[in-house]
Amino acid sequence: MTTVRLTRGCFVGSVGFLLLLQRLPRPLVEAAFAAPQPFRFLDEHQAAVVTEATARLIPGPRDEPSEVGHPGAREAGVVHYVDLMLSAFEDDPPRIYAGGAWSDRHGGPENLMARFVPLSRAEEQAWRARIRKLQRRYVRGIAALDRAAGADFAAASPQKRDGILASKRHAAFRRLLFEHAVEGMYAVPEYGGNRGLAGWTEIGHAGDVAPLGWPAERVTEPQPDPAPPGSKLPFPAAVGDERKPVRKLQSLAPPLADLQAFLDAALPLLARSRRGA
Amino acid sequence: MRPFPCSRGAAAVPRAIVVGSGPGGATAAMVLAQAGFDVTVLEKGRNHFTDLETPTPRTLYSNDELKMIRGFGQTLPELEPRTFRFRDGQDEPVAVGDVNTIPGAVGGGTTLWDAKVPRYWDIDFKKRSLLGPVPDADVVDWPFAYEDLAPYYDAAEELIGAAGDVSALPAFTRQHAPRTRPFPMPPGAQMRSSLLLADGARRVGLHPYPFMEAVNSVPYDGRPPCIHCGHCSFFGCPIHDRGSALVPLRRALQTGRVELLAETTALRVVHDGSRATGVAVERPDGRRRTLPANLVVLAAGAVDTVRLALLSALPDRSGLIGRGLMLHWMSHAYGIYLSERIHADIGRNNTQAIDDFADPDFEGAREAARETGLPYFRGGVVELGGTSQVIQEALQYVDLLELFEPEKPFGVRFKELMRLSALRDRLAGSQMIAEDLAQTTNCVDLDPRVRDRLGLPAARITYSPHAHELAAQDFYLPRLKELIEEAGADAAGAIQSVSTEQRPSPTGQLTPTGSHLMGGMRCGEDRATSVTDSHGRLWGMESLCVADAGVFPTSGAHNPTLTIVATAWRNARAWAGVEGIPALAPAPPLPSEGGDAPWALVAGGAVAVAAAAAGVGAVLGHRSRRADATATQDEPHP
User: Fold this and answer.
1) Would you say residue A233 has pLDDT above 60?
2) Cβ atoms of B108 and B302 closer than 8 Å
3) How far apart are the first and last CA of chain B?
4) Under a CB-based contact definition with an 8 Å cutoff, are residues B387 and B193 in contact?
């Protein structure tokens, strides 16, 4: 293994992590951080289909002109997240629950997330069944995308790929792919995605900040609001220059053209996802 | 089944088995062990900690949203499903799987809780006497009053470490939940989103205050102050600044008389009809055995405690076991801010609250109640300022794009939404935790068909809200929305969460919201109308006690955990024959209203509460135990 490969990863500059890597079993390290790498569940073609499909769902600079400077599923390695999930039981402990209490990204002396949590017998039974079901759905879903594209979904034009993914016939598999693309973008990188912290950096999210956390002022104080570079949305002025609310909603791109309609539609989702604690 | 080899008959030290290691079970274990019992704590879930005898055990919980989505530390629904239906006679369940599941792990619900620790009000304990009956509901008094529980509230706040500001509490809160002591800690850093909504609340005449939380604002009890990592509610605390059941569990383990058995499922209570003699369990290796005990404490959470009672065929002379299940309704309102990123994902989920809607005499509430044919209604405490986590947010856009952009519900639009972050970084949420009236028709029993991984019948929840809950929600939702509009949000909205068979919630979720499970083992003074006595002992079987919210006769209009701890503490002392009230560290007098809070003094004066058992006498009514030796003195508080 070379450190050159690591520069593609998300732990650049961490001597402690490099030392840890040297102690970890080689296959584990390669599976997680080396790129390019062999896939474990997906074959080369299936991996290409997942890559090209998820790059339409969450496009990056190579996929859409507007996304230059904005990494997407391709850049974040979503396909590796998917492959690691589908082959979770090829590792021991299986790659289901990353460890704790922290990584080494924000003050942790050691990346404890890199050590996955051994499952109980009951958990293993449940998760093996869940993964088997997902494997079947992927194999079938990929084959269906290929059929819709004539032979090879990955080789189809972006327009054609969009059309197939948008069709009702493939809605269920698209939904599964999209959910996993989201997880591969924004989950901690120990699960194989979010490479180089691309998913978090793109949206200005700090991710797992423990054990360093945030100072009290950061909790309380208003924060400046820089628009993400290249954003097509009209962002309000940053804090400091007359913070008046942007109320010219008509100028916002859809679906935010009508913010109230957007929130009204979001209410059931917001309420459903918060069960209360 | 083979008896467990460690019991040697009546001459031995009294043995207690506590089923469940959550706040109620851990507190009961602490009290019993400090009173001289040998205690075995059974926890069906896993132990994701090491060194539980230290204040900051190593933990596997982390800032990992995917892990929480995947159910880490929770009961996986396919292993232990529950079923839900609206009413008796509905043979097909409306839902199977995750129905109001609470975490199944060492520490119970407090592993993932939001650690808000308000007290119940005086009117919760004397509901029938002070507010009166409600048609078609089962409104009763508790067998004890607020004043009886107050010393245990003080003790519970000191034990798990509560942060708050008495002088900031509105007059009606101080009147309904009177206090003689300050909080052990001052409030922590206030979240921007919470302060914005608190401003809105003030503008519409409401009375926000820093919500009392079991989260360290200063070093306390050997645990560090909060780092505001923003992974709070539904996440395990990575550094133990958030207090939990681990605190009483630690005190229990430190006596040297407590054994914690994780991944050990209680299958049934062994009894002879009048005396509980043990618990049949399954160990992680699949082997089954019976553990003997003089005292069996059920603290598995209201639903699972009832399920175990029914699986054990415990005596049920009143026919009320499982009846009167209550679930707090969470009614939500949200605002989106375009003018700034209010970063509600940094902090402690939310840090401000209002109690106004918990007051049955809130302006206009009595009149609105009468218009719907009710003598009164109550909403509940409103938490101000929460938002989504990032994966959760992204999945909401996945759904919304299907609505707004059905031709192509993905692509650049998704990324723009993520960058704008209207539903996370610009979102401020609020939720009202509303009182749920007890109805005997709302119950837990055993599902006739669905079984868990061990082949035991699943818990079946039969539940429909009372007109009270619907009326209160209809009255308060517009006020929640108004509060958010006044807080300067660019868009505000509120949504009905109470769901009935006739009027399903627009959330699409038919099962009741919330993880607050209460009732089913109601305590009372009259054995004809209650399941357990005034100290949570099963009528007709005093060696079987309940230490969770199952004993609650009313649900209250506030988060229940502090009341679970206080009630378990009060009751367990009676089971062990301990007299008096828990000893507390000296505290400065309360500041007068509007005065300066003497926080420096308070933080300096906080001392471990574990000496509660000192001076304790009889155990089981006849045996004098080594009370002094049971007092566990921790390292002094900072």
Assistant:
1) no
2) no
3) 49
4) yes
How confident is the model over A188-210, as a mean pLDDT? 96
Asked, for residue B159, whether it belongs to a domain, the answer is: yes
Are B450 and B410 part of one and the same domain? no
Q: Are B548 and B298 in contact (CB under 8 A)?
A: yes
- What residues have CB less than 8 Å from B244, skipping those under 6 apart? B23, B107, B110, B111, B113, B115, B160, B214, B237
* Three-state helix/strand/coil letters over B3-44: ECCCCCCCCCCCEEEEECCCHHHHHHHHHHHHCCCEEEEECC
B395 contacts A179? CB cut-off 8 A: yes
Q: How many CB pairs under 8 A join A and B?
A: 311
Q: Are residues B39 and B169 both part of a single domain?
A: yes
| CA–CA separation, B122 and B182 (whole Å) | 19
B397, B417 Cβ separation under 8 angstroms:
yes
Note whether A182 contacts B391, CB cutoff 8 Å. Answer: yes
Question: pTM value?
Answer: 0.88
How far is A272 from chain B, CA to nearest CA, in Å?
6
Residue B25's pLDDT is 98
- Return d(Cα A112, Cα A5) in angstroms, integer: 21
Whole-Å CA distances, B174 to A274, B169, B181, B376, B377? 30, 7, 12, 21, 20
Segment B206-247, tens digit of pLDDT: 999 999 999 999 999 999 999 999 999 999 999 999 999 999
Q: Could you tell me the residue ranges of all domains in chain A?
A: 38-99+114-203, 233-273
Distance, CA of B391 to CA of A186 (rounded, Å): 6
- The ipTM is 0.89
Statement to judge: residues B409 and B494 lie in one domain: no
Over residues B50-66, mean pLDDT: 97
On the question of pLDDT at B484 being above 90, the answer is yes
B454 touches chain A (CB under 8 A): no
Total length of chain B: 638
Is position B637 within any domain?
Answer: no
Q: How far is CA A17 from CA A34, A112, A113, in A?
A: 14, 10, 11
Residue B456 lies in a domain: yes
Same domain, B491 and B587: yes
Q: Is B371 exposed, middle or buried (0-12, 13-18, 19+ CB in 10 A)?
A: exposed
Tokens of B615: 């001076």
Which residue from B61, B392, B515 is facing A101, i.e. has the nearest CB? Answer: B61
Q: Tokens 């999210």 — which residue? A: A205
| Domain shared by B400 and B412, yes or no | yes
Looking at the fold, whether B409 and B436 belong to one and the same domain comes out as no
Same domain, B475 and B413: no
- B284 contact A CB<8A: yes
Structural domain contains residue B7:
no
Residue B48 · residue B111 · CB < 8 Å: yes
Residues of B in contact with A262 (CB under 8 A): 336, 400, 404, 422, 491
The count of structural domains within chain B is: 2
The whole-angstrom distance between B625's CA and the closest CA on chain A is 39
* Same domain for B576 and B619: yes
CATH of the domain at B60: 3.50.50.60
Residue of B nearest to A158 (CA): B411
Q: Which domain holds residue B409?
A: 390-417
